[in-house]
Design a protein that fits this description.
Shape: globular
Strand content: 25-35%
Distance between the termini: 6 Å
Number of strands: 24
Helix content: 25-40%
Number of helices: 14
Structural class: alpha/beta
Bound molecules: ligand EPZ
Strand order of the largest sheet: 22-23-1-24
Length: about 425
């Protein structure tokens, strides 16, 4: 298994181009099931997760090819097996997104329940309850969802907690359901907004895009789409913004949408970091010291993203005072704390409130990645630590970051991947 070796204390200077959003390309690849002619998806990040989704589509009869560095060509005209196996689905929770479009297209599907994630169980009860509210008959058989959507009609759906995946999954069924579906407490994340825009470009009738109430007027059929370009990855961008704030330097991020990063920019500015927003560029300037402490919490969009919680936690270890960080999306997304503490952080947990000691001097050590964003926090910590850090299990980071070591090296970091 690959590991990263990082020598810390180098400031970051220069420009990087942010890749397309992992959490947009996955639902859009699933939605391509509804497209019956070749679709070109541009600005796709090179990630193992997009390859996993491609494998799932191919297992159902789809033709998928990757061209250039960031284009996926998908032809689902021959897709005729509404079945997604445990072997594939267990490796990536987002595979469960295929259920909605398979039901919309074939009126039946058999999809494995996803496995838990590294930081704990991640249920899909919201997805299943919502499908049943639209009239889908669902049986659970040997770890599979066996679903029949021959008698579906629009309805009212209220999610008890905002769910990105459940909102996307239900949307992809509701667009072809007879009648009107209203989803309240829907996700408004930019990735869901792009999914709505894609479906509307295919002839769907979704209103309320970008709000927490979506109204979907079912249509009898959709048009084929030829091409779509993935929005920039706000979490990759936020990761590099926090890395620059922590280790110091001046970094220009290209191909970003500053609107998607308003809360991150606000919080970085609040702790004394200079953030300059231009049309599709964000500049971050930091001395890497004199970072103010803060007490923030994660929330659904447009709040502070949970996918930057681990990275922010590390930044607060370097602040000039003690901080707190409340995680409101997942009760147990804290596997990174033990590993960060091995590097010299002093973080404790009370329920889902992290208490973070500031003014920490980090010393390089051997640490282990536990999930995509925990890995990112460990990389940033290693960039700030005295001496060398070795990070194992970097396959986690390869799921969510496109060429991260190349981008960091270009900015002056000392990072190498060792087999
Ligand atoms: C998406 O996951 C993202 N993944 C996650 O990013 C992100 O952390 C999460 O949204 C929250 O923003 C992708 O888009 C591929 P949820 P998702 O359904 O859809 C609970 C990353 O690092 N819940 O919005 O799986 C759930 O346990 C990944 O890029 C239920 O209880 O998340 C959580 O507490 C990690 N039952 C909350 O809702 C359900 O049926 C939000 O989860 C569904 C969710």
């Amino acid at each position: 298994m690959d590991c990263f070796e990082i020598v810390g204390k180098n400031h970051l200077e220069g420009n990087i181009v942010v890749s397309g959003a992992k959490n947009a390309v996955l639902p859009i690849m699933a939605a391509s099931i509804l497209n019956n002619s070749p679709l070109k998806i541009k600005n796709v990040p090179t990630l193992s997760d997009s390859k996993t989704m491609a494998a799932i589509l191919e297992s159902m009869g789809s033709k998928v090819s990757f061209s250039n560095d960031d284009i996926i060509n998908i032809d689902n005209s021959g897709l005729n097996i509404p079945f997604a196996s445990y072997d594939l689905v267990r490796t990536m929770r987002a595979s469960f997104y295929v259920l909605g479009p398979l039901l919309a297209k074939f009126k039946q599907a058999k999809v494995s329940l996803p496995g838990g994630c590294a930081w704990g169980p991640r249920p899909v009860d919201f997805h299943i309850n919502a499908f049943e509210q639209l009239g889908v008959k669902i049986d659970l058989e040997n770890g599979y969802v066996v679903a029949d959507a021959s008698n579906i009609k629009g309805g009212k759906i209220h999610f008890p907690k905002i769910s990105v995946g459940a909102t996307g999954n239900v949307l992809m069924l509701a667009v072809l359901a007879d009648g009107v579906t209203v989803i309240t407490n829907a996700a408004a994340e930019p990735e869901i907004q792009q999914l709505c825009q894609m479906l509307n470009n295919m002839g769907a009738d979704i209103s309320g895009v970008g709000t927490n109430t979506l109204t979907i007027k079912g249509v009898t059929s959709l048009k084929n789409l030829e091409e779509i370009s993935i929005i920039p990855d706000r979490i990759e961008a936020g990761t590099f913004m926090i890395a620059t704030a922590a280790v110091g330097g001046k970094v220009i991020l290209e191909n970003v949408n500053p609107l998607h990063l308003k809360e991150v920019t606000k919080q970085l500015t609040n702790v004394g970091i200079t953030v300059i927003e231009k049309s599709n560029i964000i500049e971050v300037h930091s001395e890497g010291n004199n970072i103010k402490f803060s007490n923030i919490e994660t929330n659904e969009y447009p709040g502070f993203p949970t996918d930057l919680q681990a990275q922010w936690m590390l930044l607060m270890c370097l602040a000039n005072g003690d901080s707190t960080l409340k995680e409101n999306i997942y009760f147990d997304r804290f596997t990174h704390i033990l590993e960060l503490n091995r590097l010299g952080c002093k973080i404790s947990l009370e329920g889902s409130l992290a208490k973070i000691k500031g003014n920490r001097n980090l010393i390089g050590a051997n640490v282990m990645s536990t999930d995509i964003r925990a890995s990112a926090a460990l990389i940033i910590a290693a960039l700030c630590a005295e001496g060398k850090t070795s990070i194992s299990r970097v396959y986690h980071i390869d799921r969510g970051y496109d060429k991260i070591e190349e981008k960091l090296t270009k900015l002056g970091a000392q990072i190498i991947r060792k087999k």
